[in-house]
């Protein structure tokens, strides 16, 4: 991890007129919805569905061989396995929400400008000049600071579509084009 350029940080903090700032609060629904937008969660869900299809194909093959018990077993597995994956991911998200209880309903502030994004809450301050990835959904923007760590930014926090478009442009530049979504 590269050290923070203190001169850039001082310049960033000294020129608030170049920055746009939005303020918002997150709740349990925000965390739950964005957890299922996370690329790793989507990959796990696709793997579960893939195994379900594989089990279904195996059931068809067993049906062709006239093995009714094996066919019934793999049809049930094709239905149950993806549901179990989704259930376990949902439980994992619920546990994460409980661990983030301290920052729920806390006011958050995100400042952004050319080449920089700063995230501030009651318990943390983060200043970034590079993003691992940006995930865009209809309701949220997830700013990836690592493979698993994301800042959640609700789209409704922006005053107008032009402010959102400016933010999307800045974050796309910081992520060097690694953008998932529209």
Brief descriptors of the model:
182 residues; alpha+beta; 5 helices; 8 strands; elongated; PH-domain like
Distance between the termini: 29 Å
Note poorly predicted spans: none
The beta-strand count equals 8
Computed CA radius of gyration, to the nearest angstrom: 22 Å
Sheet with most strands: 4 strands, antiparallel
Main structural class: alpha+beta
DSSP strand content: 15-25%
> What is the number of helices?
5
- The topology string of helices and strands comes to HEHHHEEEEEEHE
Indicate the mean pLDDT: 81
Counted up, domains total 2
Overall form: elongated
CATH class descriptor name of the largest domain = Mainly Beta
Strand order of the largest sheet: 1-2-3-4
CATH architectural grouping of the largest domain: Roll
- Determine the CATH topology of the largest domain: PH-domain like
Q: Roughly what percent helix?
A: 40-55%
Task: Explain this structure.
This protein has 182 residues and is of the alpha+beta class. The chain has 2 domains: 6-25 and 104-180, PH-domain like; 39-99, no CATH class. It has 5 helices and 8 strands. The chain has a 4-stranded antiparallel sheet, with helices on one face. A 4-stranded mixed sheet has the order 7-6-5-8, with helices on one face. It is elongated, with a radius of gyration of 22 Å. The protein starts with 5 loop residues before the first helix and ends with a strand.
Secondary-structure map:
Layout: H1 6-14, E1 20-24, H2 28-35, H3 39-64, H4 68-99, E2 108-113, E3 116-120, E4 125-128, E5 133-136, E6 140-144, E7 150-154, H5 161-174, E8 179-180
Parallel strand pairs: 5-8
Antiparallel strand pairs: 1-2, 2-3, 3-4, 5-6, 6-7
Helix pairs in contact: 2-4, 3-4
């Amino acid at each position: 991890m590269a050290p923070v350029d203190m001169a850039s940080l001082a310049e960033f903090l000294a020129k608030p007129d170049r920055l746009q700032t939005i303020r918002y609060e997150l709740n349990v629904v925000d965390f739950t919805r964005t957890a299922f937008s996370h690329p790793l969660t989507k990959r796990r869900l696709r793997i579960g569905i893939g195994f379900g299809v594989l089990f279904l194909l195996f059931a068809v093959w067993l049906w062709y061989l006239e093995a009714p018990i094996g066919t019934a077993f793999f049809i049930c597995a094709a239905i149950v396995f993806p549901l179990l994956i989704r259930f376990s991911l949902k439980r994992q998200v619920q546990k994460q929400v409980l661990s983030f209880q301290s920052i729920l309903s806390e006011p958050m502030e995100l400042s952004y400008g050319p080449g920089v994004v700063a995230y501030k809450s009651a318990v943390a301050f983060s200043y970034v000049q590079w993003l691992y990835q940006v995930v865009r959904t209809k309701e949220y923007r997830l700013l990836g600071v690592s493979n698993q760590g994301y800042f959640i930014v609700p789209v409704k926090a922006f005053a107008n579509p032009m402010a959102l478009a400016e933010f999307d442009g800045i974050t796309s530049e910081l992520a060097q084009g690694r953008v998932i979504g529209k």
